[in-house]
């Protein structure tokens, strides 16, 4: 969203590059406050049990009815790992043992950085309202055409490849 | 900074948890716009040549006069890797060959995620005004007590340890 008013004094803003800065910012014409806008981190888990991964069917937009891994925007005061675990609990109800960072996917056009952790499924519980269904899928019964986000599809493909190799490693991609 | 006014209509905001949300947000009392605040990504490079690392002496606050690696806030429209390379060029003038992600350090109290990449020094050039001096240091002549940020000190310690082992790997820490 474009910034139209100063969040400190309510004055109007204009777009200009501050002295010593390399990017234009929304600067308040009244109090001079500079409004920075930066990418957001989306963090979540690739939860697995044996050779199956946990997917959530989305009960909300965007991509209502499509499948995805539990993930969402990291909040202030959290670490990436804590945020991934919280999102997993909220969206899938899964209790997991957190493992290594598995995917860093940049979406510069959307100003987002996806960070997905591997996590082993330990227990299940009730999921939140963002999800209508939680299921474990193997490579062959996974509804690939109904995966809601290409970052997630990319992560799932790398997961099953690494599973075949017997070794998980960190994957990085810029979309 | 606390949000006091709506950036969409200039109205007042109040702190409340939207329906279906788990965190309180600054919501405009006039137009209902919800202002989300999320952690920022700081990205940069651990630039090395042989057994030496490149450090910049800071010409600006915070930590004026202290040493650090080239790093700064990721901008909208960038990938983490591109941002790391840009910050490295701006702050140190170094032309580098980007390598693997080396450190993910979370600072939940500061709402920041540090992501440092390994990068091999290929050439040098003029540095920007944030820096007063750029120097290559080995483990034994590095001014450890004058390193300005503990995330950076942690990364440098892991770098020299991995260098001794002959193998670099990804390090993660929450401060």
TrEMBL record, chains A, B:
Gene3D superfamilies: 2.20.70.10, Nucleoside Triphosphate Pyrophosphohydrolase (3.90.79.10). Belongs to the Nudix hydrolase family. It comes from the Bacteria. Keywords: Hydrolase, Magnesium. Pfam families: NUDIX, Zn_ribbon_Nudix. It comes from Hahella chejuensis (strain KCTC 2396). This is ADP-ribose pyrophosphatase. Its cofactor is Mg(2+). GO terms for molecular function: hydrolase activity. Residues 38-159 form the Nudix hydrolase domain.
């Amino acid at each position: 969203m474009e910034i139209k008013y100063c969040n400190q004094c309510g004055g109007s803003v204009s777009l200009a590059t501050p002295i010593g800065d390399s990017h234009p910012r929304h600067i308040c014409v009244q109090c001079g406050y500079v409004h920075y806008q930066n990418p957001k981190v989306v963090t979540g888990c690739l939860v697995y049990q044996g050779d199956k991964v946990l997917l959530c069917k989305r009960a909300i937009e965007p991509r209502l009815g499509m499948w995805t891994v539990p993930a969402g925007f990291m909040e202030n005061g959290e670490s990436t790992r804590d945020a991934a675990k919280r999102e997993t609990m909220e969206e899938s109800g899964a209790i997991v043992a957190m493992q290594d960072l598995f995917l860093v996917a940049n979406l510069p056009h959307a100003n987002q950085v996806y960070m997905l952790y591997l996590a082993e499924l330990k227990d299940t519980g009730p999921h939140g309202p963002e999800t209508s269904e939680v299921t474990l899928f193997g490579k062959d019964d996974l509804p690939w055409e109904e995966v809601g986000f290409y970052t997630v599809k990319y992560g799932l493909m790398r997961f099953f490849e690494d599973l075949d190799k017997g070794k998980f490693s960190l994957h990085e991609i810029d979309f």
